[in-house]
Amino acid sequence: MDTPPKAIAGVSTFVDDRLGAGSFLKRNLRKMFPDHWSFLLGEIALYSFVILLLTGTFLTFWFRPTMGEVMYNGAYEPLKGVMMSEAYASALNISFDVRGGLLIRQIHHWAALLFIAGMVVHMLRVFFTGAYRKPRELNWLIGILLLSLALFEGLTGYSLPDDLLSGAGLRITQGVILSIPLIGTYIQFFLFGGEYPGEDIISRFFTLHILLIPGILLALITAHMILMWVQKHTQMPGKGRTERNVVGAPFYPAFMAKAGAYFLFTFGVLALLGTFAQINPIWLFGPYTPADISAGSQPDWYMGFLEGSLRLMPAWEINLFGTSGGTIPLSVLIPALLPLGLIMTGLALYPFLEQWVTGDRREHHIVDRPRNNPHRTSIGISAMTFYGVLWLLGANDEISANFHIGLYETTIFGRVAIFLGPAIAYFVTYRICLGLQRKDAEIVSHGVESGVIKRMPNGEYIEVHTPPADDILAHMRGKKEIPVIESAADREGIPPKGARSLIGRLRAKMSKAYGTDRVPLEEGHGEEHVAVGAGEHKEGH
């Protein structure tokens, strides 16, 4: 590690002689990266974004983002002679007349789905392991902003072909905008350039989709990577790992080779999906006209939870000042703003709320195992359940039709499950986490089953337990107690200054509930034996 390889030294010398950056390259090309599969989940989103840029550039050469009406005369016979927008005609042209166009379009759509999926699983990994804690709060907020922008990027791209399916989604978007009190009509006129559907929405979405939002995404991703590089990567607890080091492989050549292979693997999967798994066959839907409707239409998966919230919400509205005033359609406004607001706002505030509850302001470079912070894990699973119910009920019509369940009963079930489901998920997850902690404590204290059966002089059969491997033991013993703020009264019965107010007492109770280590690890002593047989298990030395 003291002497860099010749390949690095040669490049560094060349660059240093001209730019004075040789020491920078020498230092950063040998930067250590931890070796754990979960740390590569974020790479999926990064590589998908690169593929999106490449395929999107190809598609812009032939796509015409205008709503001028033309008569289709392309290769797809069923639509010949049909009047449609130039945007839809050019999308058909890409699919049937441009060599390789359909494959690139399919890869682009699959990459968009994988891009958001990669960000979601990466975010879940960061949340459940507590990798958002100091000093990474800013990077966590950048990630939340990236996910929010990616949803809008997907919405704008979904609407560009101007087919019947995307037009139905655009109509829902327009309805949501109109439900916003006071400013809804102004936003709609600004976005659509007049009354719906107008003649400018495709060109405006095209500008947002290929220029503004990708530019912001690229800048934020760059900032995200730079912060990760400067702050160094988190790592799992294990043998030889501390808060002051990183155990792993250097960026060059180990991580570069791994990353290159992973990019090719991601691209290969997307190419196979684009080749063999048809997605968004716009020629089957036909051009969008406001008078046409469709049945069984579903948005892309990342918008499914908003669709579900619209379908579950009762038909509530507020009429201001009787019939002469305005109407606030709560049945649209609440589903459009509340679920997304709860999820994104909760994610953004959680690192600071946890820091406030626990009083923990230390730097953390070793992450937690999800089981070792049961409340955080339970909160995360509850949020996933909330999201999952909304996502599932976004297809309540398909569920009713295919499983022969009444649509009304399906909707009622969803309205109950949206409240009851997260509560059950919290309780079950919490108990599972405690059970897993007890299992870890048992392994640390008594060892693991060896498979060796011994017969004692009294005729009893026992199984010998042996200490776990050093790396496994170090991984389990990496558990750290969750801090709890001081709230006990002094000898004169006076509580600390911070616990005297109502908010202070609430904080103290929350901290005690959140941070109490209910299953401490215990060290074992000597060789352990467990009795085997039909009766009750016994332990002894």
TrEMBL record:
EC number(s) per entry: 7.1.1.8
Residue span of region Disordered: 520-541
Cytochrome b/b6 N-terminal region profile domain: residues covered: 11-237
Names of the cofactor(s): heme
Keywords, alphabetical: Membrane, Transmembrane, Transmembrane helix
Reactions that this protein is recorded to catalyse: a quinol + 2 Fe(III)-[cytochrome c](out) = a quinone + 2 Fe(II)-[cytochrome c](out) + 2 H(+)(out)
Main EC class the enzyme belongs to: translocase
PROSITE patterns: CYTB_NTER
InterPro entries per UniProt: Cyt_b/b6_N, Cytb/b6-like_sf, Di-haem_cyt_TM
A Pfam family per the record: Cytochrom_B_N_2
PANTHER family: CYTOCHROME B
UniProt name for this protein: Cytochrome bc1 complex cytochrome b subunit
Species per Swiss-Prot/TrEMBL record: Microtetraspora malaysiensis
Organism phylogeny: Bacteria, Bacillati, Actinomycetota, Actinomycetes, Streptosporangiales
